[in-house]
Amino acid sequence: ETTPEPTKSTETEPEPTEPAETVPEALTVLPLPAETVQFSFLSGAGGWSTELVLNQDGSFTGQYHDSEMGDIGEDYPYGSIYVCSFAGEFVDFEKLSEYAYKMNLTNLTTENATGEEWIEEEIRYVASDPYGLEEGTEFILYLPDTPISEVPEEFLIWWPYLFEHDADPFDT
C-alpha cells in the first residue's frame, strides 16, 4: 500500500508590507459655499474699496476705487478717482484648518497701466494698482462663516469694535 504524497499549495502567503504613506489629496477647487463668492476690503471713512469675486477654481476678477473728490484741476473740477480693474488666479491651495486655506497668487493682470489718466464727465480717473493684492504672493483665505475665535487679531484690527457684541461702533 502506498501513501499519497502531500500536495503543495500554489497559493503563497502575502509578504508583510509597510503601511502605505497617506499622501494628502491636492485641492483643485476651493470649498466655497457657492460657485462664486464676493469679498470686500474697504474703509468706510476713507472712501476706498477693493471688491473681488472668487471662483471655486481660484480664478478671480475685481475692482478697486478710491475717491479723492478734493483733488481737482481745471479739466476735472469734480475730483479724481483712482481705479483698477483686475483679474488673476490663486493656485496651490493648502488646507490650514477647517476654515482657512493658504493659496498663492499668480497671473495678476490689470486693465490699465498704473498711472494712466483719463477724464470723463469732468472727473479725472487714474489707473492704480489692485490695492490689497499688489504686494503679496501668499494669501490666506478665511471662508465665510469662520468663527471669530479662528481669525487672527491682525485681521480683526480693521474694525476692532465690529466684533464686540456689547459695543456699538457708532455710539458716541
Question: In a few lines, what is going on in this structure?
Answer:
This protein is an all-beta fold. The protein has one helix and eight strands.
Gap between N and C termini, in Å? Answer: 112 Å
Q: Structural class of the secondary structure composition?
A: mainly beta
> What overall form do the CA principal axes indicate?
elongated
Contiguous runs where pLDDT drops below 50 for at least 5 residues: 6-11, 165-172
What can be said about the biggest beta sheet?
8 strands, mixed
Look at the structure and give the mean pLDDT: 81
Q: Helix amount, in percent?
A: under 10%
Helical region count?
Answer: 1
C-alpha Rg, in Å?
Answer: 28 Å
Order of helices and strands: EEEEEEEEH
Instruction: Tell me the number of strands.
Output: 8
Strand content: 35-45%
Provide structural commentary.
The protein is mostly beta strands. Helix content is 2%, strand content 39%. The chain is built from one helix and eight strands, in the order E-E-E-E-E-E-E-E-H. Strands 1, 2, 3, 4, 5, 6, 7 and 8 form an eight-stranded mixed β-sheet that branches. It is elongated.
